[in-house]
Structures are given as C-alpha cells and as structure tokens.
Design brief:
Elements (H helix, E strand, L loop, with lengths): L3 E3 L10 E3 L8 H4 L1 H35 L12 H12 L1 H27 L6 H35 L3 H14 L1 H25 L1
Antiparallel strand pairs: 1-2
Helix pairs in contact: 2-3, 2-4, 2-5, 4-5, 5-6
InterPro entries: Choline_transptr-like
Subcellular location: Cell membrane
GO molecular function, one term: antiporter activity
C-alpha cells in the first residue's frame, strides 16, 4: 500500500506528486482535513438555505404583487413570478445570503453536537451527556426560531425592499403586536393543510 505517487518523470508535471486523502498524514493538507470538511459542510448548508430563501422571497414577492394591486388584473405585472425572481436576484441577494448564513451556522453547530454525541456513546459520564443534550436542545430551538424569523424577514424584504436586519426587526415587532392572531392563523393553516393532505391521500 502507498499514500503518495511520484509522477515527476512526466515532462508536463516536473516535481509533482499525487497526495491521497486520508487521516493521520503529516502534510498541511492532512492536518487541516477536518476543517476543510467542515468548510464543505458549511458551504453545502449555505447553498441549500440560500436556495430556499430565494424561493421564499420569490413567492412572497409574487403574492405581494397580487395582494397590493388596487385594480385586478390591470395592476398585476405580467409574469409576476419571473418578475419577483429577477427582483430577488438583482436587489436582495445579499440579504438572502446573510440570512441563509446565520441559519447555516446554527445548523453546523447542531450537527457537530450530534457528532460529539455519537463519539461519547461509550462514555458513562452523566454530567457531560446531560450538558450535551441541553446544548442540542438549545440549538434545535435556536434553529427553529431562526428559520421562522428568516421566513418572515424574507417576506418583508420582498414587500418593502429593505435590508435583512431591518426586515427581521420589523417582522419580529409585527409578530409581537399580533401574537394571538399569528398563533391562531398558524394553527388554522396547519389544520387546513393537514385536512387537504388527508383528503388527497383518501381520494387516491
């Protein structure tokens, strides 16, 4: 077995070497392999969350262009979905990327905690496992809160065109002023969605 291959005999790559990815190596690449994998995971989460943010902002802009049109259908722009998508890409990419990054960092910490939990399965330290479960619970709640606030912030971004922090603050205070109405609306919406899924499944 071997971990490197000398290909310096080729005329096109004099002095080059092929390094194979494995743990425990002595090169700078192998010493930082775990950090590189964490970077890849963070980038993957960031791209996924950015795609979801772009979708939410696009749909919010589409619904807003219909809702705020005084004369329907005269004031509704042609191709509202494409117009909202173009507007989100042109003007709100930074806001969407920033919100997606915040959520991705919280998700990355939660994944690291789950990895640590797997490594500590054979350890009988009750205190460390208790603290680990507390941290997992806190970051799970934090992720849910950030995801909920991001969704409402993207709606405010699509409607008013402000930056992410301003939109998140305005969305938070708007929800706090209508906390009972928001809770009832969420429950009614969840029930209607469940009823629709049940009817579709029963009809099939």
């Amino acid at each position: 077995s071997f971990n490197r291959s000398n290909v310096s005999t080729s005329a096109s790559c004099q002095g080059s070497q092929c390094l194979f990815a494995f743990y425990g190596g002595e090169t700078s690449y192998h010493r930082h392999l775990f950090l590189l994998q964490l970077s890849n995971l963070l980038l993957c989460l960031w791209l996924i969350n950015f795609s979801l943010a772009l979708e939410q902002c696009t749909l919010a802009g589409t619904f807003a262009s219909y809702y705020w049109a005084r004369r329907k259908p005269q004031d509704i722009p042609p191709c509202p979905l494409f117009s909202s998508f173009s507007r989100a890409l042109r003007y709100h990419t930074g806001s969407l990327a920033f919100g997606a990054l915040i959520l991705s960092v919280a998700q990355l910490v939660r994944i690291i905690l789950e990895y640590v939990e797997q490594r500590l399965k054979g350890v009988n330290n009750v205190v460390s496992r208790f603290l680990l479960h507390c941290l997992q619970c806190c970051f799970w709640c934090l992720e849910k809160f950030i995801r909920y606030m991001n969704r409402n912030a993207y709606i405010m971004v699509a409607i008013y065109g402000k930056n992410f922090c301003t939109s998140a603050r305005e969305a938070f205070f708007l929800l706090m002023r209508n906390v009972v109405r928001t809770a009832v609306l969420d429950r009614v919406t969840d029930f209607l969605l469940f009823l629709g899924k049940a009817l579709i499944a029963g009809g099939v």
